[in-house]
Design goal:
mainly alpha; 0% strand; single chain
């Protein structure tokens, strides 16, 4: 009986493995949210959102996007060299960021209109380094189909972060800094977990080779050439609301918005993220062998659409009541934010896993154009209105239109159209 319930296809087994680990990893922050919202204030969440937004934008530079090329080479040693290259770049970028913060700490605080950030600015380089290295190792294990390691690393990151944030919140009065330190602790633990697995798997077979690093850096130069700018814009588009809500509205508004991202955005993308990781590997292989991945694409679209409908309907009709009940009436307004953003979350769930085809089909220029349009739309939002709900509606509309365009383009790429 048990054997009959097990997924039969390799795709389904891999998705289940990643989905299990990702579900646990995402469930922990969600389960801890009612505790954290009673320890930390909306203002604390807002400042943490500000920090995480800055790190997310700068971390795009950490690897120059070379980690996205790890799944592409046919030779395993070439992929190993790209991992090494990505880690070296992460180290250099982190050191340069540390130097910049040390030189311009006061000016940064004044520019960002927040004099309270000086005590956590120096955590930024550390976060950038560990995020860069972790992503490089994550893509390596994606290439190796080591989905269990990928899933476990997410659990390590999430559990360490949650325990640290709750512990620091109860034992200290660090406010937003407690959330920040907990986040960094999770990144460190997950990177160390992945790092020891990577060293064990490769130290006997592979060694860094300077000439190969240079040759591969040139071979995949389009990744930093186009994707650094494109993905910086993408990260900016996703994270600018957290920054601008802090600056133009209040830390409380930013805190409500962060809770929506953490509690609603994460669960909706659990399955999407797992499917996307497996789709990346299968689509890369299909493109290398057949020059197209039509079957894999259509199958993935059907699965994602079917799974996303019910959660989206629940959010559309019940989000304010759910937030008020679970997190307290103080956080009910976050449920209203979630309700407004449902169309964006629905389309993101379907389109984001498929967007890896821009990389696989080497359509970096089109990806860059898309990010320019999206960033322009987000920036325009905050110039057009000073009303929070209207700003959220415009953000949701901008993202929804972009995700529809992604679906249209990836449908073409899956056919092998150049």
């Amino acid at each position: 009986m048990i054997k009959r319930l097990k997924p039969k296809s390799e795709f389904s087994r891999n998705v289940l493995t990643l989905m299990t680990g990702t579900t646990i990893a995402q469930a922990l922050p969600i389960a801890s949210a009612p505790i954290l919202t009673r320890i930390f204030t909306p203002e604390d969440f807002g400042l943490f959102a500000f920090y995480f937004a800055v790190v997310s934008i700068l971390s795009v530079l950490a690897t120059a996007r070379y980690e996205l090329a790890i799944v592409l080479p046919k030779r395993r040693d070439d992929a190993y060299q790209i991992v090494t290259l990505s880690c070296v770049i992460s180290t250099l970028v982190s050191l340069l960021t540390l130097l910049f913060i040390w030189l311009f700490e006061r000016q940064i605080a004044v520019l960002l209109n927040n004099t309270n950030i000086a005590n956590w600015l120096y955590w930024i380089p550390l976060s950038i380094f560990f995020m860069g290295v972790y992503q490089s190792l994550y893509y390596w294990f994606n290439r190796e189909k080591a989905y269990r390691n990928m899933a476990n690393s997410r659990v390590v990151l999430s559990s360490t972060m949650v325990v640290s944030q709750i512990g620091i919140g109860f034992l200290t009065k660090l406010s937003a800094l407690g959330l920040i330190i907990g986040q960094v602790a999770g990144q460190v633990a997950a990177t160390l977990y992945m790092g020891q697995k990577f060293i064990k798997d490769t130290r006997v077979i592979h060694k860094p080779h300077k000439l190969k690093l240079i040759a591969l850096a040139k071979r995949y130069i389009n990744f930093p050439k186009y994707l650094v700018v494109a993905h910086t814009m993408n990260a900016s588009s996703r994270q600018l609301p957290n920054i601008l809500f802090n600056i133009l509205f209040s830390s409380s508004v930013a805190g409500f918005f962060l809770l929506v991202q953490r509690v609603i955005g994460a669960p909706i993308t659990i399955v999407g993220g797992a499917v996307g990781d497996v789709f990346r590997q299968q689509a890369s292989k299909a493109y290398a062998e057949r020059g197209e991945c039509r079957v894999e694409f259509l199958s993935t679209v059907r699965k994602l659409t079917a799974i996303s409908i019910l959660p989206s309907l629940v959010l559309l009709f019940m989000a304010p009541q759910l937030f008020g009940f679970v997190f307290g009436e103080e956080w009910r307004v976050a449920g209203v934010y979630a309700q407004i953003l449902v169309p964006m979350f629905f389309l993101q769930f379907i389109a984001s896993p498929l967007s890896v085809l821009f990389v696989i089909a080497e359509k970096q220029k089109e990806d860059l154009l898309m990010q320019v349009v999206l960033l322009s739309g987000i920036l325009m939002t905050f110039f057009l209105t000073k009303d929070v709900n209207m700003a959220l509606m415009l953000i949701s509309t901008s993202y929804s239109l972009i995700y529809l365009w992604v679906l249209y383009k990836t449908n073409s790429f899956s056919k092998g159209i150049k």
